[in-house]
Amino acid sequence: MMKLKKxxxxxxxxxxxxxxxxxAVTVSVPTLTTNAxxxxxxxxYAKLLQYSLYFYDANMCGDDxxxxxxxxxxxxxxxxxxxxxxFHDAGDHIQCGLTTGFTASTMGWMYYEYGEQFDKTGTTQxxxxxxxxxxxxxxxxxxLSSDGEVTSLVYEMGDDGKDHSQWMPPxxxxxxxxxxxxxxxxxASNVAAQYAAALAQNYINFGNEEDLKYATALYNFATKYRKxxxxxxxxxxxxxxxxxxxxxxxxxxxLATQEDSYLQENAKYxxxxxxxxxxxxxxxxxxxxxxxxxxxxxxxxxxxxxxxxKVNANQNQYYVMNSWGSARHNTLxxxxxxxxxxxxxxxxxxxxxxxxxxxxxxxGDNNANVCLVVGYNERSATSPHHRAASNLKSGxxxxxxxxxxxxxxxxxxxxxxxYGALCGGPGNTDxxxxxxxxxxxxxxxxxxxxxxxxxxxAAGLYAYYNTGSVVAEIGDEVTVYPDEVAVxxxxxxxxxxxxxxxxxxxxxxxxxxxxxPAILYGDVNGDGWIDDTDANDLMNxxxxxxxxxxxxxxxxxxxxxxxIFDVMIxxxxxxxxxxxxxxxxxxxxxxxxxxxxxxxTEYTVAAxxxxxxxxxxxxxxxxxxxxxxxxxxxTTDLPILDIDSSDLSYNVGAWKEVYPDNSFALFSNGxxxxxxxxxxxxxxxxxxxTSSMRTYDSYTIQxxxxxxxxxxxxxxxxxxxxxxxxxxxxxxxxxxxxxxxxxxxxxxxxxxxxxxxxxxxxxxxxxxxxxxYGDVNTDGVVDLRDSxxxxxxxxxxxxxxxxxxxSANCYTADATPNIDENDVDALVQFVILxxxxxxxxxxx
Length: 844
What we know:
This protein is of the alpha+beta class.
């Protein structure tokens, strides 16, 4: 039985939180449109914001709905769920993690942008009830270990099949047995990232430390597995990319913590893809991630290029991205456009007039005279596709019989007014395609993610135009929130916000002081995105002189010329190796002048026929030390082919380089370091070419000095006290006889060992594999994709097999098997037809 007394308790409790004073009016007097339809409230954005929140009361779940929902016709439901609370998705009763997370993170974004407007209208109180409910669900759905890591995440509750086989109120669903739970210990990264974003926003907006704790854990979980889970995951089967959700969450984690690693992940929104649209919606949030990035960096070109296309193509018509839920996509585009307008001093764009026209059409100024917001004005839709509001009940769980025998009109079923709900809308730009029947789900579907577009668009329009006023009464079955009543009656809100944020101010400071070029470097074709199409266009320009739409953006290294180097840099960007623009002209190592010790260490290498000699040495430290680079000066007449070390894998991101003068260096990647732990000796092996030696020759290899330093100028040199270098046995290989190699070591006081060893070497016969030089990804074709894979390898992002390494060695003029930038250069020049043959065997 419905618990109608619930409303009185909450109303009395809420009135204590406000002070009503007739003299203090905080909302402007309505300035309504002057046309004949002024009573439609086309510009009453305060009321629209107020109404837009009430739909969520109709979709509350849990054992407290009777006391919490603003609608008297709603009561407890989903009480058998493993995780209680939250909201069901739409007219349906699935609790879908993806759309729930998207809805909450979009609502959190809107309060972040328009908190003042929520406060002025008295709707912050309502907003916080809803947002706290979302966040509690997300935390309750997450199991943390003792060290704060996510061990399990509930990402969906309810079964699609059972749910869609019935048309009944949610209060009846428990008896029907629709309480399935779906969780994962290693997936659902898109859901986890959306939850993390919403929790981070709530921390930013209201300062709850527990929200940040769970946001951090869920973000780490999302990035650890980076995959979509498909088992009973409604709506996700066509959305395989979770990078957009991660980039979105990363932007909010950066705003919450100011940690640069989050900003780097946020900037990867350009690598996200969708097989549906690049509009902002639950299946692809990269446009939202880009907007947050622009607020931080000041670079809005990515966003404005995209929104311009939509606005320019729909100046005088209703914007339809998709026929299903057209109003949903329309209002979500309005959100993005109005936030961009909010920052128009940086973005250079004002889309407010376009959004106003679009909202006018949604509110009834259209050729069908229908308002898509239920209960808002005299033209409002009356029969949304919503089971609870329809008031159809099923006593025998007879599936759709009640629905099938119904005419779809709420007037015949005694349906309830679903105040504020945004209906799906017309199937195209012609509003006469809208059907006034709940049985037409395309026209009248309502859902969590549909509604949040209306919330955000209303808030943005109210912030810009400052028109309209909230109301004290909505309907007989609605309990209006006390703060809204107070504001409607001319009062002020005294206890709207109980906590303050410490991060929003910092964010604004960052936004206004950062200067970033307005050019979207790499966007060669000017479509607002950087992808393989831009790389192909740039290659065609360099190869054949085909014109470019955006020459300035093509100069990605900002050197005043568009050439082969820009192709190479854009390739590295698409591989995720660098950011654009890449203005670092000199990427050579500039070591610090900290000498560990001057060394006079010599190897005497005896003749061993054609082959190589392997000369081992170690680096150790008395105390653990982190180093960005070690450089070794070497004197020898024998070419050093390579440095080999299994201990390089111990140092994540470490790499090596052999120079033409035979000096060599070991580097970190600039993020992680070369770590030399206490009591651990790092083994390195020089591979020396002895193929030119005669049997009676003897060569000396002398290591004269070793320098510790840093690869990048902004990193300070490290203290190297206590570090020492010492040598181990040297062996030869690839000979046909057994030989004895004598190693004599003369050192300073730092090195004091002399080692003599006898080495037995055997001959090995191998069959060389067929090599397609340049085919790094081994797909049988040499193209730009191979360049991307090779760049990922050089950045320690991707490993190569032995076969791939052979194919990657496109530049053999250096007579070494090393894979370096010379190989990338040769590969790209081959792809763009500057050279005809790989490998390059002669240095220019």
